[in-house]
User: What shape does this take?
Amino acid sequence: MSIIRSVPVFLPLALLTVLAGAVVVGPMVWPIDPYTMDFAAILAPPGPGHWMGTDSVGRDVLARFLAGGRLSLSVGVIVMLGGLVPGAIVGVIAARAGGIVDMVLMRAMDSIAAFPPILLAMAVAIGLGGGLWTAVIGVIISTLPF
Assistant: This one.
């Protein structure tokens, strides 16, 4: 029997819920600034002051984990909604209008889907300039037809 089948279904969901809760509530509970450098605590092991230790310049690893998780969670939600809403609107317009409008919209979606999503996202991000939000726009565009 595979290990995948032996794990209860709710276990990954429970773990994901706990991690998302920790990321959302964590910065309020763990008030250490993730960007503050403590040169006296460089590469400190986990302990009472730093539950996950510190990195090579003395920053708290738990604080950085929580800050990065918060950013990743917010970007994931923005990308999901940014692809869902326009994609649903295009689908409804195509379904209601039918005929030539449906054909044009579906060919446009097919042309977006023809490119590998990561390459399309990278091309859009490069075309718009560097940065997190241009990468988010590129991923949203690459998820529209799906």
Remarks:
- The chain has a mean pLDDT of 88.
- The first helix runs from residue 3 to 6.
- DSSP finds six helices and no strands in the chain.
- The two ends are 34 Å apart (CA to CA).
